[in-house]
Structure prediction request, 451 residues.
Amino acid sequence: MITRLLRKLIGPRRTKAPRILPLAEHGISREHISPCALRVARLLREAGYSAFIVGGAVRDLLLGREPKDFDVATNATPDEIRALIRRSRVIGRRFRIVHVYCGGETVEVTTFRAVNPPAEDEEEGGRVTAEDGLILRDNVFGTHEEDALRRDFTVNALYYDPDRQEVWDFHGGVEDARRRVLRMIGDPVTRYKEDPVRMLRAARFAAKLDFHIDPATRAPIARLAPLLARIPAARLYDEMMKLLLSGHAERGVRQLRAEGLHHGILPMLDAILDDPARQAFLHAALHDTDERVRRGQNASPAFLLAALLWFDFQAAWRRRIEAGEPNHPAMHAAMEDTLTAQRERFAFPRRLDGMIKEVWQLQPRFEQRSGARPLRLLAHPRFRAGYDFLVIRARGGDAPQELADWWTRFQDADEATRAQMLLPAQGQGGRRRRRRRRRAAAAEPAPALAG
Ligand code: ATP
Ligand code: MG
Prediction:
């Protein structure tokens, strides 16, 4: 109510004309743009629409980095894009966009959005805003200038014209990129209230780009962090995974903490970041993930979640054992407890559960280093993930380094060396074997009676 009244008094946010930079000034050549994005832009332009490469790709190229993916912005509507480009699909409801597929690549095509659409548009399919300013749906289309104004940060509102090789800069993003400043377009408080996920994005981009968050953009975050509670659990998962799998997770999580954003979004981060022992483990896990991403290796969300929830799982298991439950059922129930508790706030897909559980279940098996068990563990389909997890535990002080080193050597050793490495049977294994031997002896007819 008050927001609307204010908006009426102040009037709509002001659009700006762009500053247009030629190739000589921005230095982004067409060769660095994905052929798929160029093709999409060309098809749209040939059909009479305007089309630009936009967002992260232009920003990253300007900074001399390799873009993760390419986005295209156009004045064609989703239906018009669909009609023009066969291998495409409309996705999203809150924010309808078109995915165009070329080979293995996907280019996201968005239609220019309006800012402050007139009240009559606030209905089904258009812009739907809650009383407190939260945008529930945003599908009112607008002009290019308006589209620039509704983007989040100045460096994300740069548009590249592939025909003329120009960069259109509406909000001083080129200068901010040069000074490495992340600055919200418009009034930060209003923009965070429209979409609280922008707070997480601020932390993510600051970490990924090694930018400094402009003080006015940063200041309201700590106070507004609780607004994240209104974000659906599935969107929170997507946005957090972007941060955790960006190759800059370690810095990203530090940034979240610095902004006070870790409380409440990820219950696991709350717990981890307030306990020094857990922190060492977390940083070992994030460091490992970052290295993998940077080497172009597979970093799986399941593995990461297994790491983030490891302590919660162990605590749940311990609680059940202390309550008198037998070890094995207690472990299974503890796994379920842990995953269910997280899922309330953070909707990770169920297909990840299997791998998370396997990685956890394998851990105690690494402690058994005698008899045939180590060889059996080596042959387990998830051995690699389990072993990688053990290495991280050792690095984070949660498992003996000697144990991890033993497995590092054992898996690559030849048969003879492996045989030498095996530890003598002891503890439970030994007891069980003795029991088995006794049982076998009992089953055999006693020699004295046989004849
Ligand atoms: P990345 O390199 O991680 O893909 P990106 O900047 O391309 O970074 P995307 O999430 O792919 O980020 O979004 C593409 C563009 O859409 C952004 O650059 C920004 O202009 C705009 N955008 C995305 N999410 C929002 C949001 N929540 N609010 C405002 N603008 C947004
Ligand atoms: Mg992108």
